[in-house]
Structures are given as C-alpha cells and as structure tokens.
C-alpha cells in the first residue's frame, strides 16, 4: 500500500512516521525545500508541492497512491483563506487524473458554531468564523465528487508535542467563558483515528474526532499550565456560548477507541 500525505506538518508528519513504522510506503509533501531532507531521513518519499494561485508545482509520482490524505490548513486567520478551496480544486483535478479512489480530508470541529448544545455529524454545523466557513465549503466540494470516496475527519482542538495546552492561556487574566467545555484531541489520537479509517476501509463518511471527555476550560487550562510549570491563567467562572462535540458515526462505522479517554489522568 502507498499513502500520500499532502501536508507533512505537525499532524501529517506524525501520521507519516506511524505509517512508515508499519511498513507502508509513504509519499509526503511540503512547501519548504529545507524540509525535504527531514522527510527523507524518516523514510518518507519527499515531494515539493506548490498549489499557489499563480502556479502549480508537483511531481505526478506523488499522486501514485492508494490513499491520499489532505492535511493542509486553510490559514484563514492569516488572510489566506480565500486560496484554500481553489488549491483543493487543483488537488481534485490531480486526484481524477491519477485515478485515486480513496481520500481523507482533514477538517476541524471549528465548522460547528457554538450552539449551546451537544453536536454530532447529523447536526447542522452553522459555521460562523472565516476558518469554519472555508473548511465547510471544502467539505461540500469533496462530498460532491463522484469519482472517488472521501472521508472527512473533523479534529477537535489539537494538542500534543509542540502544542502544549498549558501555554495557550498561561498568565492571562479575566479570560471569559471559563465554564465552557473543551473539545480537544491529542496528536496520538489524531494519528490513531486516521489509521483506523485506513485499516477499516471506512471511506465515504464524515467523522468528528474529539476525545469524549469535556472538562471546563477553567479546569483544563489551569491544570495544563501547572503541568507545564507555567503561571496559572485566571478565568471568569461563567458559561456563555458553548458546544460539546460528539460522534455517532464513530460508534456506527469505525469503533475507534481513544488512547486518551480521560483528561484528568492526562493532566496528572
């Protein structure tokens, strides 16, 4: 089996390493020439791919694969959100040209607005942020394709090596909405969830991937700061807009069991 990962960043590189450890042939892409030798050292076939609006640079060999994982961020906060869907349209052209049949599109639970209720894959997402809107537009685009099957994985807030949550609010004061529940997932489970999709050939679905334990922000981030030896943040103990992300499709179609089931244990 060959898996191509478009975007070997924080998550993509971790996934690539896990696949290589299994003996899977992995093609990994980057937009930085400096990162090519890093990928090669990990046993990943490295490719420089540029999907910028004014150019298209890629080696066709990258798209010679059984499964394509698309893990490029929309970068809406930096003002590049408008380029995201046009980039993905170029990817779709390449998918069709190279006859790829199985695709995993990495999205985010940010497609869900805070609706003061529990939300799953059957819920109306109602995206209300620039990033959420562009991600949802990308999901719709891929769900419309008939030449290949796409599984969309919506990750919760990402934490793990290099993304220690104790740093997010350390030392800050009067942080609002301290009683709102967190919707997080560790890098280990991001990788594990994706491997489960590939292992079970679960293509053509949308999955919310979020640890099913939702501590209040106040507790989670205060304990995370303490764990990291950082100054404790100070939250306002109030509950304003919130959401709890759950999944009906995981139980129905995948059955993935999270490595981290309880944030209390992880925060110790």
List the helices and strands and how they pair.
Elements lengths: L1 E5 L3 H12 L3 E6 L5 H6 L3 E4 L18 E4 L13 H14 L4 E7 L8 E3 L10 H14 L5 E7 L1 E3 L24 E3 H13 L6 E4 L7 H11 L15 E3 L3 H6 L8 H5 L1
Parallel strand pairs: 1-2, 1-4, 2-3, 4-5, 5-7, 6-11, 7-10, 8-9
Helix pairs in contact: 1-5, 3-4
Overall pLDDT, averaged? 96
Rough outline: globular
CATH homologous superfamily grouping of the domain at 73-162 and 184-213 and 244-259: NAD(P)-binding Rossmann-like Domain
Number of strands: 11
Low-confidence stretches: none
Total helical elements: 8
Return the string of H and E elements.
Answer: EHEHEEHEEHEEEHEHEHH
For the record, what CATH class of the domain at 73-162 and 184-213 and 244-259 applies?
Alpha Beta
Largest sheet composition: 7 strands, parallel
CATH topology of the domain at 73-162 and 184-213 and 244-259: Rossmann fold
What portion of the residues fall into strands of 2 or more residues? 15-25%
The helical percent reads: 25-40%
Task: Please provide a written account of the structure.
The chain contains eight helices and eleven strands. It is α/β, with parallel strands linked by helices. The protein has a domain at 73-162 and 184-213 and 244-259: Rossmann fold (3-Layer(aba) Sandwich). Strands 3-2-1-4-5-7-10 form a seven-stranded parallel beta sheet, sandwiched between helices. Helix 3 (84-97) links the parallel strand 4 and strand 5. The longest helix is centred in the middle third of the chain and has 14 residues, at 84-97.
């Amino acid at each position: 089996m060959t898996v191509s990962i478009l975007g070997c960043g924080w998550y993509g590189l971790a996934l690539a390493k896990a696949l290589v450890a299994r003996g899977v042939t992995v093609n990994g892409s980057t937009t930085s020439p400096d990162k090519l030798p890093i990928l090669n050292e990990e046993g990943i076939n490295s490719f420089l791919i540029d999907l910028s609006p004014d150019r298209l640079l890629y080696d066709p060999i990258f798209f010679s694969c059984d499964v394509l994982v698309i893990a490029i961020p929309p970068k809406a906060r930096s003002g590049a959100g408008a380029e995201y869907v046009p980039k993905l349209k170029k990817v779709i052209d390449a998918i069709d040209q190279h006859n790829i049949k199985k695709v995993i599109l990495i999205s985010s639970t940010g497609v869900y607005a805070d609706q003061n209720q529990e939300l799953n894959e059957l819920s109306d997402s109602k995206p209300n942020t620039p990033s959420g809107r562009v991600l949802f537009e990308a999901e719709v685009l891929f769900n419309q394709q008939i030449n290949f099957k796409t599984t969309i994985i919506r990750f919760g807030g990402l934490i793990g090596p290099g993304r220690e949550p104790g740093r997010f609010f350390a030392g800050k004061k009067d942080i609002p909405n301290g009683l709102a529940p967190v919707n997080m997932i560790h890098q280990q489970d991001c990788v594990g969830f994706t491997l489960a999709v590939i292992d079970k050939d679960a293509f053509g679905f949308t999955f919310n991937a979020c640890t099913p334990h939702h501590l209040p922000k106040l507790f989670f981030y205060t304990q995370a700061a303490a764990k990291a030896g950082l100054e404790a943040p100070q939250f306002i103990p109030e509950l304003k807009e919130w959401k709890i992300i759950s999944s009906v499709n995981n139980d129905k179609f995948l059955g993935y069991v999270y490595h981290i089931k309880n944030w209390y244990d992880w925060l110790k």
